């Protein structure tokens, strides 16, 4: 039941390779398509291709720090729902009209080059910088952020030339573009969520409770600073089919012993089960809303959010877990962990004697 959902082919590696070669890629989002080229690799030829098959409005996605270093202000106050256009520029070197493909390529390369200074640019010009969000597509899943993220993931300067293709994404691409690597903004989001860990380990300690001795691993969430715990029984590094419980903190149940939810009992049963199994992990996630806060009496597992599963999966990957048996009545955690790189080979419920029963 858990292996029937085929994993989507990751289109990002092919796009990254193309960007390193200086080739354009096609980026799709919300029914629109954009052509994207790494700013440091763009040439007069590739800029001419971009201009010919796009709206011709060439932009360069740049990080805020880079715009500040080049003294390029935004055209208007930043708005979370809109692209943050900055004042247009041209590169001074070899400047004539500034509008030719060759000159716009030169300007884009200048924006990306670390030695460029504010005095090397003329304002206004024919290339429009766009400030991207610090968190990239994980903060704003939009073409500028995706374009800059792709360049960074390719090992290049996070600066990308991009322009919209006039035809909607439902229409076939021209033959000259149909041969290019193509992906979506959602692909970039999924790729970053899978390969970039949102947490980092900060320490370990030994803890003993009524079930026995465990090793507690503390992690800090780099997004909001929340601390999470992984309570580990035995050696799980390299382990296959490791019993795993993802438990979202419930103050009422875990600490105060509320009988209006199953959280405390589920947590206790999971600790007993992993200890009895000789190895296992209880990932205890703090700072997230437990399901029982919304539905009294609801099970505490299997209904985590996408961010919950991402954090839990990266904790398990850091611990070296190769595959897991999820201790939950609901397969939601199994699907979520699998989405972020932890293969799940089954689900089980902790029994009253500390054993496991298949779900």
Summarize the structure.
29% of the residues lie in helices and 27% in strands.
- From the 3D structure, determine the CATH topology of the largest domain: DHBP synthase
Rounded to an integer, what's the Rg over CA atoms?
25 Å
Q: How many strands, what sense, and barrel or not for the largest sheet?
A: 8 strands, mixed
Low-pLDDT residue intervals, each spanning 5 or more residues: 1-9, 294-303
Structural class: alpha/beta
> Looking at this structure, what is the CATH superfamily of the largest domain?
DHBP synthase
Helix fraction bin: 25-40%
Q: What is the CATH class of the largest domain?
A: Alpha Beta
C-alpha end-to-end distance: 11 Å
Mean pLDDT: 88
If helices are DSSP runs of H or I spanning 4 or more residues, what is the number of helices? 11
Number of domains: 2
Number of strands: 16
Strand content: 25-35%
Based on CA inertia axes, which overall geometry fits?
Answer: elongated
SSE topology string: HEEHEHEEHEHEHEHEEEEHHEHEHEE
CATH architecture assignment name of the largest domain: Alpha-Beta Complex
């Amino acid at each position: 039941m858990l292996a029937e959902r085929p994993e989507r082919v990751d289109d990002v590696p092919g796009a990254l390779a193309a960007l390193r070669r200086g080739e354009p890629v096609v980026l799709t989002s919300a029914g629109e398509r954009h052509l994207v080229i790494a700013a440091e690799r763009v040439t007069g030829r590739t800029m001419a291709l971009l201009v010919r098959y796009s709206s011709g409005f060439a932009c360069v996605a740049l990080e805020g720090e880079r715009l500040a270093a080049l003294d390029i202000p935004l055209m208007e106050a930043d708005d979370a729902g809109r692209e943050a256009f900055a004042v247009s520029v041209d590169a001074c070197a070899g400047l004539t009209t500034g509008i030719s493909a060759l000159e716009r390529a030169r300007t884009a390369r200048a924006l990306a080059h670390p030695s460029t200074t504010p005095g090397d640019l003329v304002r206004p010009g024919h290339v429009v910088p766009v400030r991207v969000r610090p968190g990239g597509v994980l903060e704003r899943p939009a073409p500028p952020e995706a374009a800059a993220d792709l360049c960074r993931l390719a090992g290049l300067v996070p600066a990308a030339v991009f322009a919209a293709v006039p035809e909607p994404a439902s229409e076939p691409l021209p033959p000259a573009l149909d041969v290019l690597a193509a992906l979506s903004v959602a692909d970039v989001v999924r790729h970053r969520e899978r390969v970039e860990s949102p947490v980092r380990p900060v320490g370990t300690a030994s803890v003993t409770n009524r079930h026995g001795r465990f090793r507690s691993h503390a992690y800090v969430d780099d997004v909001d600073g929340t601390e999470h715990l992984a309570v580990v029984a035995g050696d799980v590094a390299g382990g296959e089919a490791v019993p795993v419980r993802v438990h979202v903190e419930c103050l009422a149940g875990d600490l105060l012993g509320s009988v209006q939810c199953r959280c405390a009992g589920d947590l206790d049963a999971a600790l007993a089960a992993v200890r009895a199994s000789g190895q296992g992990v209880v990932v205890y996630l703090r700072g997230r809303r437990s399901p029982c806060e919304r539905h009294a009496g609801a099970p505490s597992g299997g209904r985590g959010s996408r961010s919950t599963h991402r954090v839990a999966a990266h904790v398990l990957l850091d611990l070296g877990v190769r595959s897991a048996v999820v201790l939950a009545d609901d397969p939601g955690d199994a699907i979520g962990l699998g989405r972020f790189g932890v293969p799940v080979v089954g689900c089980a419920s902790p029994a009253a004697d500390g054993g496991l029963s298949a779900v």
